[in-house]
Specification:
Largest sheet: 6 strands, parallel
Low-confidence stretches: none
Subcellular location: Cytoplasm
Distance between the termini: 47 Å
Structural class: alpha/beta
InterPro entries: Elp3/MiaA/NifB-like_rSAM, Methylthiotransferase, Methylthiotransferase_CS, Methylthiotransferase_N, Methylthiotransferase_N_sf, MiaB_methiolase, rSAM, rSAM_horseshoe
GO molecular function, one term: tRNA-2-methylthio-N(6)-dimethylallyladenosine(37) synthase activity
Helix content: 25-40%
Bound molecules: S-adenosyl-L-homocysteine, iron/sulfur cluster, FE3-S4 cluster
CATH topology of the largest domain: Rossmann fold
Strand content: 15-25%
Number of helices: 13
Organism: Sulfurimonas gotlandica (strain DSM 19862 / JCM 16533 / GD1)
Pfam families: Radical_SAM (PF04055), TRAM (PF01938), UPF0004 (PF00919)
Length: 433
């Protein structure tokens, strides 16, 4: 009988891809089978995120529950970004944890599994020339890493400390991985990296200097590949070549994530983001001029240390000017080993909450107005998921989530869908062709 694996994945898409790789390695090399109830598992893995404080405290309470209710003899492993930054401390605080595996060391999962109390968290470890396994949780869409780590030093962010410096994965490896995914049925490829449009800055070995625009051109030649998406591009690296390639390449989906973080040039400087409010607005203008149908999403942090009422007003001003299609908004959370952790001009908790509420209600207003204009329009949808009440959902090219009544016959298929009713996060429609 096969051994059972339970894995919980927190955090971003890079963690999801790391989990897919660990599942594949444990299945192929160690005979595990993934299950959804941790109480029956022989191995419990938690793939953690430490980008904000909340998930870290959640980790220890969750580990306690795993330990209390797990099957006798079951092992517990802590992986991902919190593993990288807390390391041995995890075993000190939760001595029943069997091993700790950092976000930059996932290729070692089958090694640490057999070393009790192993702590493998080397952020200089080079996984860039190592092929990720082909196993994927979705057969329709393939996530592919194009770089590891991050070479920026945003003063609020812990990621460079958990994933190390940025190294690009050789384009030949990426293209082969994409070809295999398309051969096995995926029509959409989703490229992942902390700063995808900084691709090609540094490879670990001798490689042809391919930049992100060239990588996109090469990938889009793959026959059978219909859609190409990526996240996250960095506003600082949005040069004209990149925007023009984005706009003119028909396989690239017309939805762009542009993480603003703040609309205030002063706060952006304190965050060390490398661009100003004007540069950001200029890039949006260029993007919309080249590609009028583009939808734009963003990340915004409120109440960064020193953010005044006027600075916050600048964030709202950018929102009003750009009218983002989607916003991920966060209250600033001080993180260990970051520069901003030592900034003393912190913003009052109550002010922070009020700002988050104000920002989110402006966003709701804008998104409702944008969504209302979709009624009666027709979009080409790629269906990916069965959802409750006999609906199937998918995305338009410009990333609108749309559902229609239907069955699994629609999964992995493209259809033209006319929008018949509007919701805030999902639109409903009917297949017209
Ligand atoms: N490399 C990506 C971001 C990865 S982290 C980029 O630069 O866009 C995802 C998001 O988490 C960030 O965009 C930021 O908005 C948010 N974030 C990161 N650190 C944070 C912190 N200390 N407090 C609050 N939000 C944070
Ligand atoms: Fe963090 Fe900045 Fe790197 Fe994004 S670019 S991962 S926000 S340091
Ligand atoms: Fe991702 Fe969280 Fe790490 S956002 S890079 S899993 S800190």
């Amino acid at each position: 009988m096969s051994k059972k694996l339970f894995i919980e994945t927190l955090g971003c898409a890079m963690n999801s891809r790391d989990s897919e790789h660990m599942i594949a390695q444990l299945t192929e090399k160690e005979g595990y089978e993934a299950i959804s109830d941790f109480r029956e598992a022989d191995l419990i893995l938690i793939n953690t995120c430490s980008v904000r404080e909340k998930p870290v405290s959640k980790l220890f309470s969750e580990l306690g529950i795993f330990n209390k209710k797990k099957k006798p003899g079951a092992k517990i492993g802590v992986c991902g970004c919190t593993a990288s930054h807390l390391g041995e401390e995890i075993i000190k605080r939760a001595p029943y944890v069997n091993f700790v595996l950092g976000a930059r060391n996932v290729s070692k999962i089958t090694e640490v599994l057999h070393k009790d109390k192993a702590v493998e968290i080397d952020i200089n470890y080079d996984e860039s020339e190592f092929a990720f396994d082909d196993f994927r949780t979705s057969p329709y869409k393939a996530f592919i890493n194009i770089s590891i780590g991050c070479d920026k030093a945003c003063t609020y962010c812990i990621v460079p400390k958990t994933r190390g410096d940025e190294i690009s994965i050789p384009d030949a490896l990426i293209i082969r991985e994409a070809e295999r995914a398309v051969d096995s049925g995926a029509k959409e490829i989703f490229l992942l990296g902390q700063n995808v449009n900084n691709y090609g800055r540094r490879f670990s070995g001798e490689h042809e200097k391919v930049n992100f625009s060239e990588l996109l051109r090469r990938l889009s030649k793959i026959e059978g590949l219909e859609r190409l998406r990526f996240t996250s591009p960095h506003p600082f690296h949005m040069d004209d070549e990149f925007i023009e390639e984005f706009a003119s390449n028909p396989k690239i989906c017309k939805s762009m994530h542009m993480p603003l973080q703040s609309g205030s040039t002063k706060v952006l400087k304190d965050m060390k983001r490398g661009y100003s409010k004007e540069w950001f607005l200029n890039r949006v203008e260029k993007l919309r001029a080249e590609c009028p149908q583009v939808s734009i999403s963003t990340d915004i942090i409120v109440a960064f240390p020193g953010e005044s009422d006027e600075d916050f007003e600048d964030s709202l001003d950018v929102m009003r000017q750009v009218r983002f299609n989607q916003i991920f908004s966060f209250k600033y959370s001080a993180r260990p080993e970051t520069e901003a952790e030592h900034f003393t001009n912190t913003v009052d908790e109550e002010v922070a909450s009020d700002r988050l509420t104000a920002l989110q209600s402006l966003n709701t207003e804008i998104v409702d107005e944008i969504n209302a204009t979709s009624l009666g329009k027709t979009y080409r949808v790629y269906f990916e998921e069965l959802i409750k009440d006999y609906f199937v959902s998918g995305r338009s090219d410009n990333n609108i989530v749309i559902k229609v009544k239907g069955s699994d016959e629609l999964l992995g298929e493209f259809r033209d869908v006319k929008i018949t009713s509007i919701g805030r996060t999902i639109l409903t429609g009917e297949v017209v062709a």
